[in-house]
Amino acid sequence: MAGTALETGQAGQAGQIEGNPVPISQDTIDRLLCDTGTRGIQFSESGDIINVGRDGGCRWVDCDKSPAWSEAHHINEWVKDNGYTDPADGVLLCHPHHLLLHNQHWSIIRTGNDYWLRPPVGVDPEQSLIALPSKQAQP
Known about the structure:
The structure is a single chain. This protein is α+β, with helices and mostly antiparallel strands and 139 residues long. It has 2 domains: 1-37, no CATH class; 51-139, no CATH class. Helices cover 20% and strands 20% of the residues. The chain contains 4 helices and 8 strands; from the N terminus they run βαββααββαβββ. The chain has helices spanning 4-8, 26-35, 52-55, 95-103; strands at 2-3, 15-16, 23-24, 70-74, 90-94, 107-111, 114-118, 130-131. A 3-stranded antiparallel β-sheet has the order 1-2-3.
């Protein structure tokens, strides 16, 4: 994937996928970068695989998709946040909720060990935070 924003580090510039002349938006570039790459498996102090053990499935409110039906969302955006993602800043979302988050401009923030969903202004002008508790069964 080649893109001006990736080369300059400036958000808001469109790019294109190598071999395809159709331009893509910065939002599409950000979503593709969020989903790109591989990492080794990382474990929590208790031996659980990070995200799967911690989140227990899609964190979206009222979603019951298991970890097997979920994918990692990087809270920090590649261009805006210089591509750095701490494992604590990744949360599990099912594919439909991951797309909804990116396409409708929702965001997730972390404060300590707590995760919050922030709706876009068009959904909630106050952008009131919605708690996203883990769905992992508590012992």
